[in-house]
Amino acid sequence: MSKEDYRDKIEEHRQSFEEEQKEQEALSRVARMNKNGSNNKKPKNTKRKTPLMTILFVIFILIPLSILVYFLKFYEPGSTIEEAEKNSSEEIVEIDNSGNKTVPVSTDKNKDGDKADKEKGTSKKDTEKLAAEQKAAEEAKKAEAAKNAEEARKAEVAKNAEEARKADEARRAQAEADRKAEQARKAEEARKAEEAKQSAKASTHTVKTNENLYRIALNHYGDGSEATLAKIRAANGMSSNNISVGQVIKLP
């Protein structure tokens, strides 16, 4: 209930109170006249209550008091206008016939409604709190999943980089091994060519002064053993190691 509706209801009570007061005054005058038995007899001068006092009472006492009761009992800083109006409608102010007393009336229905509203508000707050906690938990879970995904991505990138580095090192090592193998092959081929050249040059030998078969075998083969001497004798059809100056000897 809004403040305007509240004032209208108070105004209705005030008007009905004034009408009842006027009727009672008229009845009291008729009763006094009948009791005295003569219309010429002057009635007693009774003090009439003026409606102005009632109006002033309503304006300066009843309305501020109602507002004060509203703020003390029903107003909540966090409540909406609809909730405040609903809470303010739970108290009804009655004016007695004397016009000097206000009585707040709270019915059992309003009490039950107040209790239900409080329980509803509490349940709503609990629901909102639970929803907020669930939302925070979901956001934390999403953040944790995103963090784990980012860490997994970084680990995968580091792993790929490490594998690429190892592959590059293996490629370089293989290239170095191939280069060394090629060098070894070329060296072997050069050695064999040199040996073939030396072998071609040493295929025959002319005996010089102070040379014998042993010295010739030692110079050409590096070995003066009997097996080497036997090979030279067999190549030249010799039966002994005796040679002469100027003799041409085949060296197998």
Keywords:
Membrane-bound Lytic Murein Transglycosylase D, Chain A; two-stranded antiparallel sheet; 6 helices; two-stranded antiparallel ribbon; 252 residues; single chain; mainly alpha; 71% helix; rod-shaped
Low-confidence stretches: 38-47, 90-107
Structural class: mainly alpha
Mean pLDDT: 76
Topology pattern, helix = H, strand = E: HHHEEHEHHE
Q: Separation of termini? A: 135 Å
β-sheet strand percentage: 5-15%
Number of strands: 4
- Number of DSSP helices? 6
Identify the overall geometry: rod-shaped
Q: How would you sum up the major sheet?
A: 2 strands, antiparallel
Query: Helical percent range?
Result: over 70%
The strand order across the widest sheet is 1-2
Radius of gyration: 67 Å
